[in-house]
Design brief:
alpha+beta, four-stranded antiparallel sheet
Length: 259
Amino acid sequence: MAKGFSQKTKEELKYYVYVLIDPRDNKIFYVGKGNSNRGFSHIEESIESLRDTGKLETIRAIKRNNQEVKHYIIRCGLEESEALLVESVLIEFLTFKDFLEVSKITNIVAGHHSFNQGIKTIEECEILYNCKELDSKDIKHNILVININKTFDTGKKKSKSEHPFYERPNIYEATRGWWVLDRNKAEKVDFVLAEYKGVVRAIFQPKQWLQDENIGDKRWGFEGDEVTDKTILDIYLNKKIPKKKGMANPIRYFSKFEG
């Protein structure tokens, strides 16, 4: 198990809210906020400190059972004041006496592709924030990369508060259209990669390309399926797309490496 985040991941996480889970029953036993490697400090404290608290005793008992504490990042990329608010709401929710039976919640659907600020394991944080760049030698297919920074961030504002949040569209809808592109080139690609904040977040296999006749500048979109094949995901998913200086076009084509 990792004993701390890499420097790159620490910078990307900023302030975050985390939970510690007991692997013996998969229950949360601690909620905290912090930055850098704060989420790992409790493990060291349980070893070095003689203090006897519920948190430290739980960690020691887990270690005696030859198991590891599970860490989850609940929200990240926060200012300290935001992290404090999220932490306090989460603690109150988990400890409020009338909410003890939370497993019966049926009208809340977990967010799909919560790569931006959603719940992650510490391993997933490293994959997302300290990811490797896609090497041209690793490209095994003809691919079209679409930058969805604008389409994925364009949602309806849900609150007029000081810290509003947005209802983002489905990542497939944010990727599939409509784009100014060369249809002949597009029809030759094997996969379309959704690039958000410089990293591949989803992969789609287009089935057909369609033109939106309602848009005057002849934009194109596709219908297709999200790729779940692990061999494909291992090549492209969570990889950085090489930056091209002065590149403003959200559309980029890459050909498979023939070497």
